[in-house]
Write a structure and sequence with these properties.
alpha+beta; Arc Repressor Mutant, subunit A; about 40% helix; globular
Length: about 210
């Protein structure tokens, strides 16, 4: 059973991807502040700040103490792994940012800028080889070249499909995502790079 969230602070934290992702390690089991910092590349101060907010919001509870030489380590765990938040509990600005995927878009833009500092200086609107309208940069790089990083940023003005074809496309997209998502726990433990993913498919308004 999912946990219904009525606490306004908890609702705001869970609806903010940048904060909610810090709850993930605690959802998997007892975790220390240092574990959180190491897992997500945070400073200890940043990790302590997030844990403090989660405790105040009732999203974390103490999960014991790890005895060792020196100072004992406090462990915490999330109160649940599935949360339901009434929309009225989420501040409008946070909800708009979440629904617009603003947090992920900003992180994606920073990642691309690090690879190509000039990316995005010019907007290109063009017909692709299939006759569909696309939006992108001034020059289309060879995405599949070995020396080009695994980056894709594709927005199309529309695919024309029957409902059956669209449902097949939907299933294939989700199956492909889940196929690679299943590898993530092991790959994270191996220290592999993290990739942002966006999948979107919807009937266009008439």
């Amino acid at each position: 059973m999912a946990l219904w969230v009525e606490n306004p602070l908890a609702a705001r934290l869970l609806a903010d991807p940048g904060m909610a992702v810090a709850l993930k390690p605690f959802m998997k089991g007892p975790t220390s502040v240092k574990d959180l910092a190491l897992a997500q590349g945070l400073s200890l101060q940043q990790a302590h700040y997030r844990v403090g907010l989660f405790l105040r919001a009732g999203l974390l509870v103490p999960a014991g103490i790890l005895r060792r030489r020196g100072r004992p380590v406090r462990l915490y765990r999330a109160v649940d792994t599935d949360f339901r938040i009434p929309r009225e509990r989420v501040p409008e600005r946070v909800l708009r940012a979440l629904e617009g995927a603003r947090s992920w878009q900003e992180e994606w833009a920073r990642a691309l800028e690090a690879h190509d500092p000039g990316y995005g200086a010019v907007l290109r609107v063009f017909l692709n080889e299939e006759g569909l309208l696309e939006f992108g940069g001034e020059a289309e790089p060879d995405l599949l070249a070995e020396d080009f990083p695994p980056l894709v940023n594709l927005w199309s003005a529309g695919l024309y499909l029957s409902r059956e074809e669209a449902k097949t496309f939907q299933r294939e997209l989700l199956a492909l995502y889940h196929r690679y998502a299943a590898l993530s726990p092991a790959r994270q433990a191996e220290g592999q790079a993290r990739y942002l993913v966006h999948l979107g498919l919807a009937p266009a308004p008439k």
